[in-house]
């Protein structure tokens, strides 16, 4: 398993198709500081998902930024993506690892203490805690964990796997990045704050700069 740079995970969600083609959005993010691109699509057919994933992969080819598929191991395999991001109800990480191989990127969502314990012992390359705050990007029946919940879940993972990169997602704005990093996150995952900004390239650059400053303990 590789050591992943999780500082800025830009999620290109199918809900963004009204903004621009997903491959175009992915390239904007990669060119301006995203360190991971994730394609998420809860409604498209498998065929369409594979087509979109192939287009995103082609758009990112020159950037060197890795690219994962949310939920769908089959789509990741078919499109030759770098890996997958798995939720609690998706394929088990050890099964995904067996199918995708030792070099694939496998990430998991963490919402509960049980999720944190599993993430700390599973064959994964990163975990992402959330939702931290309320978000409009996804219907989420679970209440936000908040900064205190983030701290607690991060501490559980750190005990079990100190080197595992841990991100945070949901409702995070440029202004809240420093507090989220201070609570223990190694990076941020974002959708609307990046891709529904008036200037997407500038939003990505600003997030990356603020994340880097926060990780160094500097003022944003």
Key structural traits:
220 residues; alpha/beta; TIM Barrel; eight-stranded parallel β-barrel; 9 helices; 17% strand
What is the topological layout?
Elements: E1 8-13, H1 22-31, E2 36-40, H2 46-60, E3 67-70, H3 73-79, E4 83-86, H4 93-100, E5 105-110, H5 113-121, E6 126-129, H6 146-160, E7 166-169, H7 177-182, E8 187-190, H8 192-195, H9 200-215
Parallel strand pairs: 1-2, 1-8, 2-3, 3-4, 4-5, 5-6, 6-7, 7-8
Helix pairs in contact: 1-2, 2-3, 5-6
| Helix-strand topology string | EHEHEHEHEHEHEHEHH
Number of extended strands: 8
Helix share of residues? 40-55%
Which structural class do you get from the secondary structure elements? alpha/beta
Residue-averaged pLDDT, rounded? 94
Give me the CATH architecture, please.
Alpha-Beta Barrel
CATH homology group: Aldolase class I
Number of helices in the DSSP assignment:
9
Uncertain parts = none
CATH class value:
Alpha Beta
What general form does the structure show? globular
Termini separation comes to: 32 Å
Profile the largest sheet.
8 strands, parallel, barrel
Strand order of the largest sheet: 1-2-3-4-5-6-7-8
Q: Approximately what portion of the residues adopt beta-strand conformation?
A: 15-25%
Q: How many separate structural domains?
A: 1
Rg, rounded, reads: 16 Å
CATH topology: TIM Barrel
Oligomer: single chain
Structure description:
The protein has helices at residues 22-31, 46-60, 73-79, 93-100, 113-121, 146-160, 177-182, 192-195, 200-215; strands spanning 8-13, 36-40, 67-70, 83-86, 105-110, 126-129, 166-169, 187-190. With 220 residues, it is of the alpha/beta class. The chain has a single domain (8-215), classed as Alpha-Beta Barrel (TIM Barrel), CATH 3.20.20.70. It has an eight-stranded parallel barrel with strand order 1-2-3-4-5-6-7-8, surrounded by seven helices. It is globular.
């Amino acid at each position: 398993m590789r050591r992943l740079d999780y500082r800025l995970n830009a999620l290109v969600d199918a809900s963004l198709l009204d903004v621009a083609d997903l491959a175009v959005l992915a390239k904007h993010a990669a060119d301006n500081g995203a360190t991971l691109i994730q394609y998420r699509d809860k409604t498209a057919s498998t065929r369409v998902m594979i087509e979109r994933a192939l287009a995103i992969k082609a758009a990112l080819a020159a950037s060197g930024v890795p690219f994962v598929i949310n939920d769908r191991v089959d789509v990741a395999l078919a499109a030759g993506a770098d890996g997958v991001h798995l939720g609690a109800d998706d394929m088990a990480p050890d099964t995904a690892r067996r199918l995708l191989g030792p070099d694939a990127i496998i990430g998991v969502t963490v919402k509960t203490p049980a999720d944190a314990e599993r993430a700390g012992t599973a064959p994964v390359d990163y975990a992402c805690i959330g939702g931290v705050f309320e978000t409009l990007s996804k219907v989420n029946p679970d209440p936000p964990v908040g900064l205190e919940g983030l701290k607690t879940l991060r501490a559980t993972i750190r005990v079990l796997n100190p080197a595992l990169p841990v991100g945070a997602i949901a409702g995070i704005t440029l202004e809240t990045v420093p507090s989220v990093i201070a609570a223990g996150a190694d990076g941020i995952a974002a959708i609307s704050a990046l891709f529904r900004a008036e200037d997407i390239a500038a939003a990505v650059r600003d997030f990356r700069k603020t994340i880097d400053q926060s990780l160094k303990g500097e003022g944003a």
